[in-house]
User: Fold these one by one.
Assistant:
Number 1:
Amino acid sequence: MNQDVDLKFVDEAIDSIGRGPESVIALLQAIQTHYRYLPPEALEYLCDNTDITPARVTGVSTFYTQFRHKPVGKHMIGVCHGTACHVKGAQNIHDALDRHLGLTDGEDTDADELFTVHKVACLGCCTLAPAVQIDHLTYGHLTPDTVGKMLHDFLAEGDKHPGKLGSGIGIDVADDMAEVRIGLGSCCVASGSEKIYRAMVDAVERTNARAVIKPVGCIGMCHRTPMLELVTPDRTSHLYAKVDPQDAEAIIRRHIRPPGMLRRFTATLRQTVDSLLTDQAWGVALRRSIDARDKPVSDFLSRQKHIATECCGYVNPVDIEEYIAHGGFEAMKGILAESDPEATIDTIVASGLRGRGGAGFPTGRKWREVAGTDSETRYIVCNGDEGDPGAFMDRMILESYPYRVIEGMVIASKTVGARQGYLYIRAEYPLAVRRVRQAIEVCMERGLLGGNILDSGHSLTLKIMEGAGAFVCGEETALLASIEGRRGMPALRPPFPAHCGLWGKPTLVNNTETFAVVPWIIRNGPEAFARMGTETSKGTKVFSLAGKIARGGLIEVPMGITVGQIVEEIGGGIAGGKAFKAVQIGGPSGGCVPASLGDTTVDYEALTSVGAMMGSGGLVVLDESDCMVDITRYFLEFTQDQSCGQCTPCRIGTRRMLDILTRLCTGEGRTGDLERLDELARHVKQSSLCGLGKTAPNPVLSTLKYFREEYEAHLEGRCPAGRCKALITYSITDDCIGCTLCAQHCPSDAIAMTPYQKHQIDPEKCTRCDACKTICPQGAVRID
Amino acid sequence: MPKLLIDNQEIQVPEGTTVLDAAARLGIEIPTMCYLPSAGSGTSCMVCAVAISGKENLVPACATKAEDGMQVDTRGEEVLAARRTNLELLLSDHVGDCIAPCQMADPNKANIPAVIRHIAAGDTASAAELLAGNLADIDGAKPQRACRRGRRDEPVAIDLLLKYVAAHAGRAATAQASDAPAGHRFSVHMGKLSETELERFMVGISPDPQIIPADPQAGYTHAEAAAEAKRCMHCDCRKSDNCKLRDYAEACGAKSAHFRTTRREFIQNLEHPDVIYEPGKCIRCGLCVRITEQEGEPCALSFVGRGFGVRVAPSLDRDISQALQKAAIRCVEACPTGALAMRSKSNGS
């Protein structure tokens, strides 16, 4: 602990944020950003100098994952334990990190206080799984073997902070200029698109090409990131996938002629020299080039329908002019000019739009409830607290289409009569927070938000509330508690927030995606929206497609498409030729749809009927090497930690389910465990207080239903998929050529180096980290 | 004024009445642990869960408002099973004995932990009073074998301690009451009676009382006894006869061993001069958290953490004497288990 904590900062924070109890989360966030943890002295001082009680500070600061009460090392390593990372071996990565840093017995900081390792529920970079974040840098596609190299690289490179990106606002684009669009969503950035961006800016400067480099939102094709699209002045588009910064100049030269004869000459000369001295410059550009007409690309794109993600991949997220040029704020203007909220509600009802947060409550009905309340004050809240591991739709929408969400909120606020609103966004999504904040500022300047919007007489002030890391805050009553500066504990409904919400006032809470589709519905009419989808589920749904899939990414598909079509046609089936086993839909609240039920349609009722749930839209594809008991154990570990701890069935019931699942995965299952598990799952579902508890048993119930034989195998001490470490052994077959690679990479010295001879694994020393199997060029490592 | 049916009985209640209160008006008691009229509901224990027709899930009666036309079932099979499971879940995370193992093992079921606390405090008379039933034929061997301290190092020498009480508490007498069945002996000790008074009293009951003389020379000295007594881990629950969890578990047939699992560690916190805090017994109902807030405790109790790991503790890591400066009695009375209990003369603490 610091002997003398300089408390001046706390005063500054109080002055700028506020001293009321509702400010506690923001204050704690500021204090932690400044001191890198919450020093006890600062907390005492905070209580002494504000209206916030010690009980509030203690309750709140220990509820949210973000807050740390202990000093940390110089760098923070967040190991993603999202669903996609889990199935791709996140625990092995975590173990490898612990080994490299010499951490034992639950220690999280190394002896040199250089690194602190912590678990992250989901970084939302599911297509890069398994992923790790060190400070601002994200590393993807890791193996236990590359962890050491990653740490080394970080220490060599990581301290050089990348420069700030140009905001892209206000760049004048002349008609004869080419446009280079680079996806700068969080996952693109994680796979290196910032470097591409800078390389492109350099390349354009060097070649004097008449081109503008434009950051755009998520393109969705995360499996091919980093991507860029170059649009020549004649508006033809050229897509490049998996671009390397070295390719920048070659790509520019391929499409854009430098201006002026002399420059063209010098450029050609230099390029010739380049191609002589280095790689084939043209060749590189051609190799990275893909065509939207390429079959995989068109398969990925053609079945999609962009509504929430309209203008996907070609607008600059924070450029309001572009948003307006593509029809932005038209819907809002129409609604503001019209004085009949009832008509707007009728439109939304007619569209059949249902809440995109998962439960699927009809949006129009919710609006009508709030509009019909008898209250002077009403609030509107955008739920962007996407906590499901394996889901990143809200993040992408907020990062890529902040104006659209704001427009949807203005329309809704006018309709229900709310003048103040909040966007609740996870603090783990810094880019989303930054872009939305910027968008709000721009809207305020232009009179699109604030008092008397566009002279309509309607006013709306929007504030951002950064969530501090609690999955349960996705539940609306918990989210409202959090905005009020309390622990995110859900309340019994009724009363619903529509009647008694924020500070007891009627409050409209809708999901980010729900708000994002509203402007489209208003512009195109409810019929156009209702034409898509099924009887009870209309329009489109955004999913994040990840796991063992060939083409992962962010997709928006019409309702009614089948799960099988998503996996096979859009996702290109299973990567690596293994057999498709199941799709986990809806994260910890959802369930597993087995491959045999691939005809199940994307529809609220259809998914519920097979034991899954629309949820917020995480789709994690599993193959034959995934153990369903292990996956279920993984989700229960998540929910029992994320439960708010209020009601008995959820707090203790989920833990007791986890106990049983852990026993099964470690070969200690007892007779009757499956029956006990089933009984308990039904009990927790039936008698928990809020949605988290009511849905937490879904992973258990659906896997027990479809994969019971796997559970029975675990009772007998077998893991058919070969995943549960306690139930498997590694051995080397006669295919071994004695190359010694396994012995070199074994982190626990379980393989003696015997060149040109068959190697052997010592089962006592083996930690089942899978490093030998991953590295063996002969496929000679066997799991039994 | 909503009119509703509870277990097929009709009742009309004022707007805003909870199902729990409406049922109470009909004389139907729904067990509840996290609700008190003075401190509201924590919607936590879910022991008051009831079924409402048309609703898929059970709801907590303590927070569900009565609505017109509601049909409530408070004792159907499904409701009783859920109630029992919730109690069993609570019991599975409830550490500590209702009755100390030494007391369970004692043939006379004497409150041995309290006896030992009196010894530690040098109050042999009170100790003897508690042992009144068996001072004459003291046998501490069985309780000593059950002592939890034995798992850590050596069991508390209960046998010697009880003999010490018998020896130092003056004289004891046993008698066969003339109107009691044969073998139904009882004994008194004469801590406060003179020998003559004792004899007169015993003769009144039995023609043949046996007076056993005290032998202050035998066994432990005062200091030795006190020292040994201080090794006691006080496994007994100070609220064993005033515990809602125990009462409801018995009434609903909930078994603490239903969910077999590893238990948390038993911790006893004695920082407060008047209160014993045993966090392992806490069921996170939040009543004390709400009461300390109501009472304006400057360093109120708070929930710490979340999920299965959530616990109740004084805010800002203070000790519990600071958290319960004015609200101690209310909190102890409200606490549905032995997590918060008063130290008192009667239990020797």
Number 2:
Amino acid sequence: MVSLTATASRIDAAWRVLAGVPDPEVPALSVCDLGIVREVNDDGETLEVVLTPTYSGCPATEAIAADVLQALGAAGLGPARTTLRRAPAWTSDWISEDGRRKLRDYGIVPPGPVGGEQPIHFAANRRAPALACPRCGSARTERLSAFGSTACKALYRCLACREPFEHFKPL
Amino acid sequence: MQASIALSPDATQQYLLRIADTCLVLAQRTSEWCGHGPILEEDIALANMALDLIGQARALLAHAGTLGETRYDEDQLAFLRDERDYRNITLVELPRGDFAFTVVRNVLVASFLKAMWARLATESTDAELAAIAAKALKEARYHQQHAADWLLRLADGTPESRCRTESALGALWPYTAELFEADAIDEAARTTGLGPSWGELREPWLADITPLFQAAALSRPAASAFRSTGKHGRHSEHMGFLLAEMQHLQRAYPGGTW
């Protein structure tokens, strides 16, 4: 019989370990900061970590699951397994306040609130949302590309300090 | 050489494969732009959109593989089916053409898939399908907006870009009729609550693209009697070449992994 206290402390310990597992594509954030770890459960034998992918085609999904299991194993918390949960769909609103601060420090402008579903407007010359440069703070910035190095980011540049930067898109 | 798998007919599975294969084959065509985009940013954008489509296809194929008499995983379904067992609409298997052709096709297909995902996300009695659709809907909105912005630019660009855009629309339009032809598979899906009959998607699709065509000063081509039949497994002559390239590795080296 596993005591409730032992279960609770194993789950707490697992959350602490997961808070140190970086996202492979945005290593400034942990998988917890990103909001993709939805639950940690303990059935007395195996730890279950419930993960929700950010994008359907996110190539890091398998790597994240492997990293999570490796970290839990190394901390002596195994055996563990991961479960994929699609619903509700991940939203950038799940990125923690701490995660947003880390993103900005890393040079990536965090996403604004997603809000409700807005009608789509089409434009030959799209005015991208005005974003302050994460390096110099200038509002004189422009979007270079709606898609960046990964599906979750757009590419910008600052017209004041001339540095490029990325924007984590609201989704 | 790895032998093919043959699927026994199952209406639910067929309905899912029509969507899954449409995503997968469009992903294959879109990814052909990788390294060939007209500008670097567009190269990256197209690769990103192809990746979203592959992700959507993977999720749907994995789910469809659990529904038939024999269970198959997503890789078996993607790489070991023969042409006749592919259920994608013909529109997505046509060669990628020039950039205008790709942009016009992406507008037409992203708008269609967006209407499909919106219905599936809110109405499907299949919880897994609804969950896949809820995620895919957000992605399709980005795809549609991106392609539509380009459509406006090309239609209002140079005489050359406008000419190519009009020509692409003329070539692609006849293939859109297939999207809205309902049949027994649709009827079964509608009855069980799996998803909408595709014919019901025509109105929301037109409501989406008509204002866009007006803004681009493009007139909708006239309807024709031509009907493509990809979703019934009868494909264009381009499909075999596409599958030969996509499936070669798994056929020649069964079970091979990276």
